[in-house]
Amino acid sequence: MPKAMRQFNVFLQTDLGLALMAEQQKVLNRYLPSLAGYNLLQLSVQEGRRLVPDVSVGQYLQLGFAPLMHSVSKDTIRADYQHLPLAKDCIDTIILHHGLDFSIEPQQLLREADRTLQDGGHLAIIGFNPLSSWSLYRRYGRWLKPALPEHRPIRSARLADWLSVLNYQVLHLSLIHISEPTRLLSIGFCGFFVKKKRGGGGGGG
Q1: Would you say 130 and 100 are in contact if contact means Cβ atoms under 8 Å apart?
Q2: Cα(2)–Cα(16) distance, rounded to whole angstroms?
Q3: What is the spatial distance between Cα 69 and Cα 186, in angstroms, rounded to a whole number?
Q4: What is d(CA 82, CA 1) in angstroms, rounded to the nearest whole number?
Q5: What is the pLDDT of residues 55-102, one digit of tens each?
Q6: Which residues pair with 146 in a beta bridge?
Q7: In whole angstroms, what separates CA 77 from the centre of its chain?
Q8: Which of 76, 86, 122, 192 lies in disulfide reach of 35, CB 3.0 to 4.6 Å?
Q9: One-character DSSP codes across 1-28
Q10: CB contact at 8 A, 69 and 75
Q11: Taking the model in full, what pTM does it have?
Q12: Nearest to 102 by CA among 79, 116, 73, 81
């Protein structure tokens, strides 16, 4: 969904988008430093920005979504998120930032992340909460500027089921809402912080 991702990047430059990113970075900075290992992989639909710039890791890889990136992107490498160009069990920590919201096959993306993550590694997932008024805002977004992107937010209970199938333990779950009073708008997002159990992995149903 490259077009939707581009629209989302435009939205992130608005006051509300900047507020959203700031809150998400607060959540990541609260939990991730204590979970991060040597190799950290960031999969994010926004371009170029390190979501946790001060985290202490040996290697911070920013993998940009190839159809979205341009020649001056600051991301380390680019790829199709459905088929990551990484070996199995090579990453300690992964940040999956809104990737599931914009993926045509979110379970395939989750399986790819799981494939690259070592046993005992940690996965941080940031995604929209479909129970906030964001869905209504997007539906009537053709009257608002900038245009809001099509996306498919996943309920936290459903995502927890997928993670359970893949043998993950939920360590922290944050449900955050931010508001824009002028439009009576509340955008909610979920932050999942999970650990891959030993002998984990499997197929999502």
Answers
A1: no
A2: 21
A3: 29
A4: 12
A5: 888 899 988 776 555 544 555 566 777 788 889 999 999 999 998 988
A6: none
A7: 17
A8: 122
A9: -HHHHHHHHHHTTSHHHHHHHHHHHHHH
A10: yes
A11: 0.84
A12: 81
